[in-house]
Amino acid sequence: MTAAQPDPRSCTFRPDNPGIRPAPGAPTARSRGGVVLAEARWDGVAPGVPGFVYSGFAPVVVAVADRCLRARYGEGPLPAGNRTAVVLVSASGDRASAAHVRATVAAGGRVGPLFFFQSVPNSVAGHVAARWGLDGPVVCLSPTGDARAEGAAEADLLLYDGDAAQALLVLIEQAPDGTPGEATAVLLGEGTRQ
């Protein structure tokens, strides 16, 4: 009989695997899951954001993130060392910008340089992080199933592994015609869900 292979996280105690114990003096991982510290929704058009053009995608992300973070902290930025991650979740991304670029290229036109910047969803996630002084990881996901469940699982992993003390989860989808849709932002902190 062969011995079980060590878990890749064998240096930490995992509540879901009590057979793994930390080495003496090793830090222990946080309990899996996060408590909801604040939540906000946005539906419709949001004020413009400098550096982002044409589409309502980035403005809605910024608006819902601001609303959520203000509910918890008032005005920003947060103090240094806050270890707050940003997890942006969108199955379709910025539909309006993608359609505009596609149409411009098909017509032989010149695509403006800001479209190259904003075509990557982590550009707006990074904007939110810089605006609020969030100094944790920035992650963007394109879910294949339940967007909130997949985003929460990623946030839980960041909290559990100690990469972040809290995570701002932003869920956004634009309407198929590229008009602003609705968005939800949830600030998750360390702890166990009730």
Automatic annotation (TrEMBL):
Transmembrane segments: none
Disordered as annotated region, ranges: 1-31
Pfam families in the cross-refs: Ketoacyl-synt_2 (PF13723)
Top-level division of the source organism's lineage: Bacteria
A GO molecular function held by the record: acyltransferase activity
UniProt domain Beta-ketoacyl synthase-like N-terminal: residue ranges: 82-176
Annotated protein name in UniProt: Beta-ketoacyl synthase, N-terminal domain
Organism annotation: Micromonospora chersina
Taxonomic lineage: Bacteria, Bacillati, Actinomycetota, Actinomycetes, Micromonosporales
